[in-house]
């Protein structure tokens, strides 16, 4: 393997090289840091690179992993031991600044790690740094007015999506082996789709959100971004809140039987009302591939889907504004926000208590509808596109579709919001490429705590449709 091959290898492959003494954690960390130094100026994926910390963690991992087995000092913490990763910059890291992509928190250094960071470090992961993002996670472009925009590795003139845009760009460009992001209305899945990687939004509450700067507590979720379903499972395993006797996700994903059949639900409403022709063609090809793998497709109906967009807004707007008011930032420091985030916080002040409560009531009805429909149809997951368009150009605020200009932000959010409103897990996996060479995601939406099932379906699909292309950096 040359250096580029190593940078794009799977977590499992790197781990095997460690344990065969053919590669060390220090060597792979130095390789990643060198790639970041060379490529990050083009992408702006990292806000903070923790060079000294990463090398210290790598030396510790090396001393534990490479010590003779059975001797004092030897310790194998599992699949993430010695693996360099990144974290979205709204996740608390002790002694490492956590800006949330904002001017207000430019110099904020937490005194403690978020619980998920503690869990990842205990599993032996190495922190390369904190990734750029849409300010306060309140947007889907990662066009950050304070630190500069994140660029898509497939075309640096385009957005990577957001708000976890820096995480997705870093993973796609081989600047880390995985990252942890947050998702309130698609903030993991949108950039995963636009950057051609895997992004998993977990069931709400399945990963502890303490120590993460919130956006909307009724919708916020945490999850991994990686290049494969198996790597995604390995990243999620240490931070997942498990039911008693629940198996590890990586084992369930890896042991997926090639003969196992899946039944997938295809919603009649909403998801295909606004979608570009090239994305629709890629989706149909992916659906055909799933059928050839033995999947059964059944049409299902969820009438409340049409109301999810407005309900999501009526919940997210006031909850975000309340947090910023309680923190003492808004409206006192309104001038320090980017224009788009400031305008959304202002919208939060205009949502009535009645509208907010009605949206929460609709959320409960929608949760019931999703589970009843899936149970009645006997489907393992819903299958839909992740985004109706491929990556737009930087500052492309509107997109032409159905002879009408639509806000690009609304289009990118549109197909992702339902899973957040329902609180269910959803995964975006690479579905194919447009004629212009831009990646497009395929989304699977599951029932509560069915992350393992989504990962198994994703792994089966990616085995039949391997991602062999790399960004032309």
Layout of helices and strands, plus pairs?
Layout: H1 3-7, H2 11-19, H3 25-43, E1 46-49, H4 51-66, E2 84-88, H5 115-122, E3 126-131, H6 165-172, E4 179-183, H7 189-195, E5 198-201, E6 221-226, H8 229-236, H9 249-254, E7 263-267, H10 277-292, E8 296-300, H11 308-326, H12 339-348, H13 353-377, E9 381-385, E10 398-401, E11 404-407, H14 408-414, H15 417-422, E12 426-433, E13 439-445, H16 451-464
Report on this structure.
- This protein is α/β, with parallel strands linked by helices.
- It is 39% helix and 14% strand.
- The protein has 16 helices and 13 strands.
- The strands form two sheets. Strands 1-3-2-4-6-5-12-13-9-7-8 form an eleven-stranded mixed beta sheet, sandwiched between helices.
- Strand 10 and strand 11 form a beta hairpin.
- The chain is globular.
- The two termini are 19 Å apart.
Key structural traits:
single chain; 473 residues; alpha/beta; eleven-stranded mixed sheet; two-stranded antiparallel sheet; 16 helices
Name the beta content range.
Answer: 5-15%
Average pLDDT score? 96
Question: How many strand units?
Answer: 13
- Separation of the first and last Cα atoms: 19 Å
N-to-C SSE string, H for helix and E for strand: HHHEHEHEHEHEEHHEHEHHHEEEHHEEH
Q: Which spans of ≥5 residues are poorly predicted at pLDDT below 50?
A: none
Structural class, by secondary structure, is alpha/beta
Strand order of the largest sheet: 1-3-2-4-6-5-12-13-9-7-8
Helix tally equals 16
Q: Based on Cα principal axes, name the global outline.
A: globular
The main sheet comes to: 11 strands, mixed
Spatial extent as radius of gyration: 21 Å
Oligomer: single chain
Residue share in helix: 25-40%
């Amino acid at each position: 393997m040359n250096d580029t091959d190593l940078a794009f290898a799977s977590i499992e492959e790197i781990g095997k090289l460690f344990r065969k003494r053919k590669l060390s954690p220090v060597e792979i960390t130095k390789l990643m840091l060198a790639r970041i130094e060379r490529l990050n100026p083009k992408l702006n994926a990292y806000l903070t690179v923790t060079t000294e910390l990463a090398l210290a963690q790598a030396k510790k991992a090396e001393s534990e992993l490479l010590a003779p087995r059975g001797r004092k000092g030897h310790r194998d913490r599992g699949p993430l031991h010695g693996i360099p990763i990144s974290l979205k910059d709204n996740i608390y890291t002790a002694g490492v600044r956590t800006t949330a992509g904002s001017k207000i928190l430019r110099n904020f250094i937490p005194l403690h790690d978020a619980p998920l960071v503690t869990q990842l470090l205990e599993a032996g992961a190495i922190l390369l740094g904190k990734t750029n993002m849409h300010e306060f996670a309140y947007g889907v472009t990662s066009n950050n007015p304070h630190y500069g925009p994140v660029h898509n590795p497939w075309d640096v003139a385009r957005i990577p999506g957001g708000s976890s845009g820096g995480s997705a760009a870093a993973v796609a460009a081989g600047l880390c082996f995985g990252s942890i992001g947050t998702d309130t209305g698609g903030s993991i899945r949108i950039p995963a789709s636009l950057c051609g990687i895997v992004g998993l939004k977990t069931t709400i509450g399945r990963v502890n959100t303490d120590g993460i700067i919130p956006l909307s507590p009724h919708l916020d979720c945490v999850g991994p971004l990686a290049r494969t379903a198996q790597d995604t499972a390995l990243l999620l395993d240490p931070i997942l809140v498990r039911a008693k006797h629940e198996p590890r996700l990586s084992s369930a994903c890896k042991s997926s039987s090639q003969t196992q059949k899946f039944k997938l639900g295809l919603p009649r409403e909403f998801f295909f009302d606004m979608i570009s022709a090239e994305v629709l063609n890629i989706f149909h090809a992916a659906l055909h591939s799933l059928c050839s793998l033995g999947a059964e497709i059944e049409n299902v109906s969820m009438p409340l889907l049409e109301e999810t967009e407005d309900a999501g807004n009526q919940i997210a707007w006031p909850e975000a504004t309340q947090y910023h008011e309680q923190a003492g930032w808004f409206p006192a420091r309104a001038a320090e926000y980017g224009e788009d985030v400031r305008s959304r916080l202002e919208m939060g002040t205009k949502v009535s208590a009645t509208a907010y409560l009605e949206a929460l009531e609709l959320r409960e009805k929608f949760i019931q509808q999703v589970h009843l429909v899936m149970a009645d149809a006997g489907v393992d997951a819903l299958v839909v596109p992740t985004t109706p368009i491929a990556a737009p150009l930087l500052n492309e605020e509107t997109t032409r579709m159905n002879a009408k200009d639509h806000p690009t932000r609304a289009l990118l959010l549109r197909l992702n919001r339902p899973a957040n409103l329902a609180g269910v897990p959803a995964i975006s996996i690479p579905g194919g490429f447009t004629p212009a060479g831009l990646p497009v995601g395929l989304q699977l939406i599951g029932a509560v705590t069915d992350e393992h099932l989504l990962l198994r379906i994703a792994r089966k699909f990616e085995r039949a449709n391997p991602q062999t292309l790399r960004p032309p950096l």
